[in-house]
Design goal:
The chain has 55 residues and is mainly alpha-helical. 55% of the residues lie in helices and 0% in strands. It is elongated, with a radius of gyration of 22 Å.
């Protein structure tokens, strides 16, 4: 192992846990924008509160 590659690994972010590689993998499924997810979450919360009040 050369000294150059050893220095290079010491300065890289910690990828041994796979945290950075998680977003590089393409996985099939539904792809939604974060705004759509936030709106749906708020809608479900409001619907559940309305159902608790009226029923």
């Amino acid at each position: 192992m050369s000294g150059r590659s050893r220095r290079r690994r010491e300065h890289m972010p910690p990828t041994s846990a796979g945290l950075l590689r998680f977003f590089e993998e393409e996985v099939g499924g539904i792809k939604l924008k974060p705004t759509v997810v936030a709106i749906l979450s708020v809608a479900i919360i409001i619907i559940s509160i309305v159902l608790l009040i009226f029923f």
